[in-house]
From TrEMBL:
Similarity comment: Belongs to the tRNA nucleotidyltransferase/poly(A) polymerase family.
Protein name: tRNA nucleotidyltransferase/poly(A) polymerase
């Protein structure tokens, strides 16, 4: 029938020769093991959309692990089995990977269940998946190579740009699919179909998302943030009410939207300067603004924010407005330093949410000054010996003063400047003594 057409031509037009050869071989090994084998899911979706995708997911009707071991031997690859899930990963010499699974009826294994090889058909395997666009398979065995298995009119949804669940329990089986729905909607500029949207909202209001571990929610949000249009996706999460079930005390106002927009504009600049910046923490700087202590502690437990991150967030929260005007009026770095200090990347990101483009540029100049400025000659030891001082807060005060001045003037002479700073502090101490005496 129409739903099982042969798409070999598309395969040859759109895929690399190397991938085609690999798929052909996998089909041959399927025959040798007497198992039907398919490539499924996102790979098929993107092939039909003509978008490159190198995540090959294989499903076997039979024993997936046995099949993977056999294929690995033939292909000179390493096999990493996950016995519990009847799945395996093939890892090739060059690092290329292929996932192999056994066709299954349940999306999730119930923990504690005895391993029972519950071999299912490809149709049932596809039915348990998230959305129709991800529920197609292409047969790989030689006699049927290139036949598209489309049981649920998936191709039609793909062509019409529709995100549709396959059955009404889909979001209950895996509530993170609510977030995935928005991710695919945004990525392909598709629309969640009406009935699916209704079920989504119903399950959302029944607090199914709250039953999922914070780690899994966070993973899905991180995936959304890796997409090309993260802000569009976050907006949609807010619009559908999903965001409220992830950040319960966040009000998605036009101001919040603008803050996020500014953060997304600033992120590439900060990533050029710091490694391992997490987009999830970055947006959290504003999403978690003005949270009460208890809810913050709850959020920290749920999503695994480092204690330091939360502490620094709270510490700097009330400084954002003063800092905004300082940066936008381009105050000297030494003055900003008095308030902001050396800061950290997430404080800078938080501040960037308050800054226009010009302000962000100035903040970047400040960050570059901080990153490139070091005291070369004058150290604590130097100050103590030179001015005959005992260790104490005064030493640090002098060094900080000198550092701040060097931020404004990178070529200043440390040795002569530190002398001036010391004289000034001496004068201040004397004046304080005089005024204390006259007050008496
Ligand atoms: N899947 C699912 N439910 C989920 C996650 C995944 O049914 N919660 C199924 C889908 O059929 C999906 C496949 O598993 O196509 C692979 O999942 P994943 O790699 O997470 O997604 P992709 O569809 O490959 O999307 P991406 O392009 O973002 O990798």
């Amino acid at each position: 029938s129409f739903n099982f057409k042969n798409i070999t031509e598309i395969i040859y037009e759109r895929l690399d020769r190397r991938i085609i050869n690999l798929l052909r071989l996998i089909g041959v090994y399927g025959n040798e093991m007497k198992m039907p084998v398919y490539v499924v899911g996102g790979f098929v979706r993107d092939l039909l959309l003509n978008i490159p995708n190198y995540d090959i997911d294989i499903v076997v009707e039979g024993n997936g692990i046995e099949f993977a071991k056999y294929a690995a031997k033939q292909l000179n690859a390493i096999v990493v089995p996950y016995e519990k899930f009847y799945t395996a990963t093939l890892v090739f010499k060059d690092g290329f990977k292929i996932d192999v699974a056994t066709a299954r009826t349940e999306y999730y294994e119930k923990p504690g269940d005895l391993p029972q090889v519950d071999v299912s058909t490809i149709k049932k395997d596809l039915y348990r998946r998230d959305f129709t666009i991800n529920a197609m398979a292409i047969k790989l065995n030689p006699n049927e190579f290139g036949v598209l298995y489309d049981f649920f009119n998936c191709q039609k949804d793909l062509e019409e740009g529709i995100i549709r669940i396959l059955h009404n329990l889909s979001f209950i089986e895996d509530p993170t699919r609510m977030i995935r729905a928005v991710r695919f909607e945004t990525r392909y500029n598709f629309k969640i179909e009406e009935h699916t949207l209704e079920i989504l909202k119903r399950n959302l209001e029944a607090n199914y998302l709250e039953r999922v571990s914070g780690a899994r929610i966070r993973q899905e949000i991180e995936k959304i943030l890796e997409e090309k249009q993260p802000l569009v996706a976050v907006r949609r999460l807010a619009e559908l009410g999903i965001l409220k079930h992830i950040f319960p005390k966040t009000y998605y106002t036009p101001t919040m939207d603008e803050k996020l927009e500014r953060i997304f504009r600033f992120l590439p600049l900060i990533k050029q300067r710091y490694q391992n910046i997490s987009d999830f923490y970055a947006i959290s700087t504003v999403l978690l603004e003005f949270y009460d202590k208890e809810t913050l502690e709850f959020m920290r437990n749920r999503y695994g924010y480092p204690k330091k991150f939360i502490e620094s967030l709270k510490f700097t929260e009330n400084m954002m407005l003063p800092l905004k005007s300082m940066v936008e009026s381009k105050l000297a770095f030494s003055d900003i330093y008095k308030v902001l200090g050396k800061g950290n990347p997430y404080i800078f990101i938080h501040l960037s949410a308050y800054l226009d483009d010009d302000g962000q540029q100035y903040l970047i100049r400040y960050i570059d000054a901080i990153l490139s400025t070091k005291l070369e000659k004058v150290t604590g030891k130097y100050v103590m010996e030179k001015f005959n001082l005992k260790s104490g807060p005064l030493i640090n005060e002098i060094l900080e003063k000198l550092y701040a001045m060097k931020l404004d003037n990178p070529s200043l002479d440390e040795v002569s400047t530190v002398e001036k700073i010391f004289e000034e502090t001496q004068n201040k101490i004397k004046q304080a003594e005089v005024s204390e005496n006259t007050n008496r």
